[in-house]
Amino acid sequence: MTEAIISELQNIVRRHAQLDTDAHGPELRPVLPRGPRDAAICFVGRDPGEKEAKCGLPFIGESGQRLRNGLLEFYTPSVLPSEQSRLEVGERFFWMSTVPFKPRGNKSWSQQVRVACQPMLLQLMQDQWGGRDVVTFGTEAFFWFGIGQPDETRQKLRAFWDQGDIKYERSIEVPLPGLARTVCLHPMPHPSPANARWRARFPELFKQRLSSLSSPSRPA
Q1: What are the backbone dihedrals phi and psi of residue 9, each rounded to the nearest 5 degrees, phi first?
Q2: Do residues 132 and 40 make contact, with C-beta atoms less than 8 angstroms apart?
Q3: Is residue 49 part of a domain?
Q4: Which of 26, 108, 182, 209 is deepest in the core (most CB within 10 A)?
Q5: Can you give the CATH number for the domain in which 45 is found?
């Protein structure tokens, strides 16, 4: 099934003007969802960067390293950050993007492409991850969960997002479209160092989010 999904995803972007063909090479392998089925948290980003596209691994570029450093500091504070330790701490979690291919110039993929890719990625999530808590990074990753939803659900997501910065301390449950399953979204700002507004505050905000998700008093 995975190879069939890969073929469908490739067909969506193969001749698309936004595709960064240099980063992916002639094989055009997508950066697929990855992680253990019993991972406590799924991290969802917008799309892969150049390093991710060339290596086939999610969240290993500059922004991903920021996230992984935060995971190291929170879960294994005695371990020094290194390429190996960042990869190892990431093996505890499930990772995915709204589109598994790098866009040219790192500009956001069109909504048409995100809509076309979503059913296959949701199917992979359903098949490969059994958790409930989803941490989204940035606007596109959060509203990806509104694709294919009824108007009422999309309006709830919009109202939640429009709360302002307090949303980064709150969570919202949402059904997965087409699947008999609900997840809980925990939004975060995009971790890019270029995100001037959140660059300095992101590490502490991420730590607070991880702490709340690790609290023993959280409902199951």
Answers
A1: -65, -40
A2: no
A3: yes
A4: 209
A5: 3.40.470.10
Q: Cβ contacts of residue 45 below 8 Å, gap of 6+?
A: 58, 59, 63, 64, 95, 96, 97, 98, 137, 138, 141
Q: Which of 138, 97, 142 is nearest to 120 (CA)?
A: 97
Structure token digits, residue 13: 């972007």
Q: Is 106 left (phi over 0), alpha (psi -120 to 50) or beta?
A: left
Give me the number of domains the chain comprises. 1
Q: Six-digit token pair at 83?
A: 């390429």
| CA trace torsion 24, 27, 32, 37 (10° rounding) | -140
SS3 call for 134: strand
Q: Per residue in 152-174, pLDDT tens? A: 999 999 999 999 999 999 999 99
Q: What's at 138, amino acid-wise? A: G
Report if pTM > 0.90. Answer: yes
